[in-house]
Amino acid sequence: MLSDLHTKRADSASPLSDLTRDYAQSLDAQDPLRHFRQEFLIPSKKDLKRKTLAAPDENDEEDDQRSIYLCGNSLGVQPRNVRKYIDHYLRAWALKGVTGHFVPHDDQLLPPFVSVDEAGSKLMAPIVGAKPEEVAVMGTLTANLHLLMASFYKPTQERYKIIIEGKAFPSDHYAVESQIVHHGLRPEDAMVLIEPRESQLPILTTEQILRVIDEHASSTAVILLSAIQFYTGQYFEIEKITSYAQSKGILVGWDCAHAAGNVDLQLHDWNVDFAAWCTYKYLNSGPGCMAALFVHEKHGKVEKDKIGTAEQAFRPRLSGWWGGDKQRRFLMENKFVPQTGAAGYQLSNPSVLDTSALAASLELFNRTSMAQLREKSLKITAYLERLLKYPPESLPKRTFSIITPSNPAERGAQLSLRLAPGLLDSVLEVLEEHGVVIDERKPDVIRVAPAPMYNSYVDVWEFCQVFFKACRLALDTRK
Ligand SMILES: Cc1ncc(COP(=O)(O)O)c(C=O)c1O
């Protein structure tokens, strides 16, 4: 029996009773956020194996039939109320056609189409510690990084470099590289990669990052880092790094893909210059749903009295009509005056379908707070770490190691586990067979992310039982 592996050891040693399923259940019972789990459609084990999509009866699934879904760092699960939001959108479109842009309804969940972007900003801002005017829900992550760099990366003879992690997510790497080339520069000269000292443990210390900033201080225009590193799960010291780089005259941007909805960011107070993130991970908006960006209020000013003069009235950017002054939007004057703040970075009228899906999830986040979610996240990830530190005695010590920092302040929900060589494929097979959903980064890392919004302590406990068994089987078959 699968669960015997771990319960036996725990039962035979009473000081380790916090390793039992009962203990996990008791933690769930005390969890003040536990009711949120019911707001989500977590795929059942049966549904993960089905070959058709027809007639899933999502309401019939008992909790213990649900998969052990620890993959919110990749794709969040569907909030139940997405259907309601999308249905409202479909009805508004069907009943009102183009007039749906302007006609409010007594029972609307979101304002008329033309104002839906404002609703998005209001719902999103508290999640990243921003003012609503500093956030725009728009575009996609990589496209937003490009738009932001188009505005913030203005290479000069003296300052032309962009500093980025050597192991940045490929899309960020390509975006930076192509921006540099776009400006007629060579990545060999202008792209500074911060490389981890050990490729086996790709953690960057703050000191190392500050040292690279020092080395390139006078020639760097922008530093773009990930708030939480996708591979290691490392949560960087955003405030410290931002203020240090800014003290050297460098503009600082953060890719918050793995941080938004995961940790309690304070983008405004930390004085971040710009940031962008997707919404399909911890923010549960659905695959490829629209993203968001942050522009600090100090950069979003529009000085109306300077418009038409030789002086710069607003930060230059790549523009589209939706970023323009709302009062004049339909006058078709072809004189671009942006809206104040991040909204002035919008290009196109937003997808109301996308915004509806996203708003359904953001509404749940707004029923609690990132501070509360982070509090649970710290506990549930610490619990995962604790269980992983007590594998059954039959498992050799070097079967796996946790590469995510052990300091809770330096990580979010995710723990990345490096397996001994040759184990990954068999481990993944067993995890899948038992309805565990996590993701892998070949050749040997799995990423496990208990999302505080919907994961339970029992999920974590179950994962560890299956994982230990998977490791045992993988070791046996490798021999
Ligand atoms: C850190 C990071 N940057 C960029 C991307 C690319 O996102 P998108 O395809 O939405 O542009 C991802 C996607 O997972 C990511 O994790």
Automatic annotation (TrEMBL):
One of its GO terms (cellular component) is cytoplasm. Its EC number is 3.7.1.3. Pathway: Amino-acid degradation; L-kynurenine degradation; L-alanine and anthranilate from L-kynurenine: step 1/1; Cofactor biosynthesis; NAD(+) biosynthesis; quinolinate from L-kynurenine: step 2/3. Pyridoxal 5'-phosphate binds at residues 141-142, 169-172, 226, 255, 258, 280, 321, 349. InterPro entries: Kynureninase (IPR010111), PyrdxlP-dep_Trfase (IPR015424), PyrdxlP-dep_Trfase_major (IPR015421), PyrdxlP-dep_Trfase_small (IPR015422). Keywords: Cytoplasm, Hydrolase, Pyridine nucleotide biosynthesis, Pyridoxal phosphate. Pfam families: KYNU_C. The keyword Hydrolase applies. Homodimer. This is Kynureninase. It comes from Aspergillus saccharolyticus JOP 1030-1.
